[in-house]
Design goal:
Blueprint: H1 2-18, E1 24-28, E2 33-47, E3 63-64, E4 67-76, E5 79-89, E6 99-113, E7 116-124, E8 149-160, E9 163-174, E10 180-192, E11 196-205, E12 214-228, E13 232-254, E14 261-283, E15 288-299, E16 320-333, E17 336-345, E18 351-358
Antiparallel strand pairs: 1-2, 2-3, 2-4, 2-18, 4-5, 5-6, 6-7, 7-8, 8-9, 9-10, 10-11, 11-12, 12-13, 13-14, 14-15, 15-16, 16-17, 17-18
Length: 359
């Protein structure tokens, strides 16, 4: 508890010290070694939340989404590194609902040239930065469901002209709730210009080999942004995945020192999932933005006529859901954003409201 309070105190103090500087240089020597301190603090959440779609950890009408992050990043000639701690609410499905302190990043990298780099450690997988690239809303709507940050990761990223590309491999990946995913491989290829940018990504999970309900999975994602002048942009984002989930589990032994069983999962069956959105953003001024999106999701497990899973649970909304989001972003300062987004249709919330301060 003392450690948590100390970290939060440092975070809060640094916001005022940094004076909206998007990072504070705390060390630099004559040999080129440079260290910056950075982070963010956010408060807000999901109002009139509806957990029937399985997005949250509880059935409460308000789901807190508070978040704080503090990190250091440094460079030493061609070597760079980052260590980042997050203090966040475990509000996703399978989460505890508590505020937890965790190390989110811990890696080092090497710049072969200014456009090519290799990273190793606890970092985001290659496709993580672009999994919702065509979505302009503040609260990500259609979820691509890629593996996000993973430990034991090696990642390569490069750029050649307008092309950007990256690939990564993570050994024994885990979900946000700690479930085994197996080895994770993914990558992306993108074309980025001032007017048009488009990026495609692929991801493969080896599966847990019976340790958790997650079997193997193949995921494809696509994002696009079209800038029509300086004020108006249109985005597209979508994904398609084939995943294998276990239908049953078998107890094999009792865990030591307690009465709980350990299990082996079996009867893995394939499900097809897909989703897409159309999004747009209009910039009124340096301080005001309007965002909107139309969203579609379809999951094989929702289909009551699915021969593998339909006999287990029936979903009243059918095999797909459709909803729309309209939001306003207010940026009183370059490093402060106040966002409010309302949703109608088959959304998992009526309103998402949030304030974030970056430094």
């Amino acid at each position: 508890m003392k450690y948590t309070r100390l970290v939060l105190a440092i975070m809060a103090t640094t916001v005022f010290i940094s004076n909206q500087s998007h990072g504070l240089n705390i060390y630099e020597d004559q040999y080129g070694h440079k260290i910056d301190l950075y982070g963010e603090i956010g408060n807000g959440g999901h109002f009139n939340a509806d957990n029937k779609y399985g997005e949250f950890n509880s059935d409460e009408e308000f789901i807190d989404d508070s978040f704080a992050s503090l990190g250091i990043k440094g460079t030493y000639d061609k070597i760079y590194y980052k260590l980042e701690m997050d203090y966040l609410r475990e509000n996703w499905q399978g989460g505890s609902g508590d505020m937890v302190l965790e190390i989110d990043k811990g890696y080092f990298g090497y710049l072969f040239t200014s456009n090519h780099a290799l990273e190793m450690g606890l970092t985001d997988t290659a496709f993580d930065d672009y999994d919702s690239y065509g979505d302009f809303t503040f609260d990500t709507t259609v979820e691509t469901g890629e593996a996000s940050d993973q430990g034991s990761t090696i990642k390569y990223e490069g750029q050649w002209g307008y092309l950007k590309f990256g690939s990564s491999f993570s050994f024994k990946g885990k979900s946000e709730s700690g479930s085994e995913l197996g080895n994770v491989s993914n990558g992306y290829l993108g074309l980025f210009t001032d007017a048009l940018s488009i990026v495609a990504g692929l991801e493969t999970l080896q599966g847990s080999q019976g340790v958790s309900k997650q079997g193997k999975k193949n995921l494809a994602g696509l994002g696009l942004r079209l800038n029509m002048g300086n004020s108006f942009s249109i985005g597209l984002n979508g994904f398609y995945e084939e995943e294998y989930l276990a239908r049953s589990r078998t107890p094999i032994s009792k865990a030591s020192n307690n009465d709980e069983f350990t299990y082996i999962y079996n009867q893995y069956e394939k499900l097809e999932n897909k989703g897409w959105l159309v999004s747009s953003k209009y910039i009124f001024s340096e301080k005001w933005e309007l965002v909107m999106s139309h969203n579609y999701e379809e999951y094989g497990q929702w289909d009551e006529f699915n021969t593998q899973f339909g006999d287990l649970t029936k979903y009243t909304w059918g095999k797909e859901r459709v909803w729309q989001t309209l939001g306003i972003n207010f940026k009183p300062y370059p490093s402060v954003i106040i966002a409010a987004e309302g949703s109608v249709g088959e959304a998992d919330q009526s309103l998402y409201a949030y304030t974030r301060i970056y430094f």
